[in-house]
Amino acid sequence: MISTHGVNNVLVRNGTNRLPTSCHKRSMPGMRHQEQVPGHHIQVDVKFLHLVDSTGHRVRRFQYTAIDDPTRIRALRIIEKHTQAAAIDFTDRVVERFPFRSRAVRTDNRHEWQAKSHWHVGCPGTRHVYIKAAIPNLDGEVERSHLTDKLEFYQLLDHTDDVDLAEKPAAWEEFYNVHRL
Question: How far apart are CA 142 and CA 176, in angstroms?
Fold first, then answer.
């Protein structure tokens, strides 16, 4: 009788100890399912901003961002409050900005997406899906777009005031969706 170690040695010597890549099993937990239909999954996230106003004081604002998985069309808005009402207003903006119907909205499980906003987002025809905790690749597109904002948009702002927070993000959103490759 041959031991398992002996069998392994023979397989290694003949180069047959590995399965072909077509036979590898993929683990399903934590993997994203990406559809190529616009509006199938819209990722929404909030980025905490620490900005400086024209007087030099630090100001805390919140960037609400939504991005469609297949088309990468984005909507963003900088808001002063981090509440469920702000989340509801933002989702209404997403519905009016995107040129297609949203089938599922994917968010994290933070307080702004609980109760009222959960029911508002989950209107008839749209599902509200919470991502699993500690699995950042489930909303990777929106997280990556936040990095792009940091590298290409926020570095160009000298200071922020109410005019900047209304006009410049709208111009950046237009540039990101239409002109940026």
Answer: 13
